[in-house]
Write a structure and sequence with these properties.
The protein is α/β, with parallel strands linked by helices. It is 53% helix and 9% strand.
């Protein structure tokens, strides 16, 4: 039998260059994803870094060079946020990074809007709320920020929202999706009540639910429910709806763990 010592094995690995390569840093991973356009690149990089002033500086330079401010929302700001979303999905960066980037992007959107009389067309409307009786709104705030950063118009109802107020907002705003978060098990049952009242009115829209108290088995019990384990799932569900997946069963098939 071949008798190899640990130092021999290490030597072989080095000699034949099969030692594990060093993993890329988050900054290096982002660098590979940035657009190559010299005007768009600094904007996308500033979004990733969460540097609001640098985002505006990049937008100013692009607008001075002839870029349309509204076009820059999709062509630069959304592109930069897309880099952030991809790295987050891959576990390379984490939620605080995403939130900083979202803030920088929203600031960039406001700047673009201030530079023109054009009005950007939102990708769609979403109504968000925290369940009645629940005052824990951190999760909802993250959902709202990520949706807005992805180009959605969000009606934020806040926390501890009465069921009838949610129904009224959905009836008025006609959103493509409703979201609800609940941290307390005693409050999540409001989601079932919302579901039933919407159906009574003949309103069938995806109702994306999540939060510390909520699990997939509970959400799957009511007809409109689609479970989102992470805050970022709200954006993915909304994107799927915009792309044409409006059937709730199809959304469950895509987003629920089986």
């Amino acid at each position: 039998m071949l008798d190899l010592k640990l130092e021999d094995i290490d030597g072989i690995l080095v000699r034949y260059n099969v030692a594990l390569e060093k993993e890329m840093t988050p900054d290096e991973a982002a660098e590979e994803l940035y657009p190559k356009d010299e005007l768009i690149y600094p904007i996308a990089k500033a979004i990733y870094e969460g540097e609001e002033d640098d985002v505006v500086d990049g937008l100013k330079a692009a607008i001075t060079a002839g870029k349309n401010p509204i076009d820059l929302i999709n062509d630069a700001l959304m592109v930069g946020m897309g880099v952030v979303s991809q790295l987050y999905d891959e576990g390379i960066i984490f939620l605080p990074n995403v939130m900083m980037s979202a803030d920088a992007m929203l600031n960039g959107i406001e700047y673009c809007k201030s530079q023109t009389t054009e009005v950007p067309t939102p990708r769609g409307n979403v109504v968000c709320h925290v369940a009645e009786g629940d005052v824990h709104d951190i999760g909802k705030n993250i959902v709202v920020a990520l949706l807005r950063a992805a180009g959605y118009n969000v009606t934020d109802l806040g926390r501890d929202v009465p069921v009838d107020e949610v129904i009224e907002a959905v009836t008025k705003e006609k959103p493509l999706m409703l979201t609800g978060t609940a941290l307390m098990t005693t409050t999540m049952y409001a989601f079932k009540e919302i579901n039933d009242k919407l159906l009574e009115k003949g309103i069938k829209l995806p109702f994306a639910c999540g939060g510390g108290a909520v699990n997939q088995d509970f959400v799957a019990q009511y007809d409109l429910g689609v479970y989102g384990e992470e805050a970022s799932d709200a954006v993915k569900i909304a994107d799927a709806i915009v792309a044409g997946t409006k059937d709730i069963a199809a959304l469950r098939e895509e987003f629920h763990k089986h």
